[in-house]
Amino acid sequence: MLFFALVITASAGMLSLASTNIDFFWRQLVWYALAFTLILCAGFIDWKWVLSQTWFRFGVYGISVAMLLLSQFQSASIRGTKSWILFAGIQFEPVEIAKLGLIFVLAGFFSRKHISAWQTGNIFLSFVYAALPAVLALLHPDFGSSMVLLLIWAGFLLIEGINRKRFLAGFACAILAFAALWVFVLKDYQKDRLTGFLFPTRDPFGANYNVIQSKIAIGAAGFLGKGFGQGTQSQLHFLPEAQTDFIFAAFVEEWGLLGGTFVILTFFAIVYRLIVIGIRAQDNYSKFIVLGTALVFTIHFFINVGSNMGVMPVTGITLPFFSYGGSSVLTIAVLISIIERIKLESR
């Protein structure tokens, strides 16, 4: 069920890319070919042994942090951020590898510290693991990815079963930290983007332009949509980033409420299946890996679809295995490959 749900998600994303930008379609096809090859080879890779090696877990994490740091010093920026590294003619996002490394490290940490994870010192140490790449991502500036990394950490605490008082105390600290970021770090345009959904009619040609065009695309779709290649907002390039941040709006415009509902239900099916696999996992480490992957899908889904519909701030978060992007596709493929191996061992 999980594999077929991913195939459906990828197919829907490819359908949207074929309509809006055929060049992105062919590039994404290569990434999907690599991704599904990796997933299908899951039975031949002893992921349990690989992930049991501390050097591997921290190696992936350390490399991602080093690349996030390195990207700060590159001269070129893309769309105003330095979130990409160019290597051998290929652009990739270090923050996607950071999500992978963070899940590996936190899964290992909480599975070893299962009994004492409620201790303040252990909670703080786990926070440091998340905060380091999150701060580096914020400096790009990439507020959305920074937020995702911290939400993954918070999700791990909930999975671990942290008591309510400690979680609320941590939540209060998070609010204070965000207030400090708001005052001392975030630029005016970032503040405008984060608060734009609260004031949808403000600055329609500036901070709120993307959201307004997205809402027009979704609102004009109707039940069955305008048809393949007939979406006016995306085809006439009124809708920005129709292949990444706003691919859901571009898809719904052409396939309507029916198509949008189908995509939403498919994502729900993926998350549901991941939760079931996580619950059935034979050991805590496997459980944390699977549920950590479910967290990535859930966080990305709600932020991306919510921002496309104008009920969440626009932070540049994409839909996993749906939006264009090789870094994201391969990161998800590695996690799904591990999960397929966990499924085999749980039977």
TrEMBL record:
InterPro entries: Cell_cycle_FtsW-rel_CS, FtsW/RodA. One of its GO terms (molecular function) is lipid-linked peptidoglycan transporter activity. Its main location: membrane. GO terms for cellular component: cell division site; plasma membrane. It is found in: Membrane. Pfam families: FTSW_RODA_SPOVE (PF01098). GO terms for biological process: cell division; regulation of cell shape. It is a multi-pass membrane protein. Keywords: Cell shape, Membrane, Transmembrane, Transmembrane helix. The chain crosses the membrane at residues 28-47, 54-73, 85-110, 122-139, 145-162, 167-185, 255-276, 288-305, 317-339. The keyword Membrane applies. PANTHER family: CELL CYCLE PROTEIN, PEPTIDOGLYCAN GLYCOSYLTRANSFERASE MRDB. This is Rod shape-determining protein rodA. It comes from Candidatus Jorgensenbacteria bacterium GW2011_GWA2_45_9.
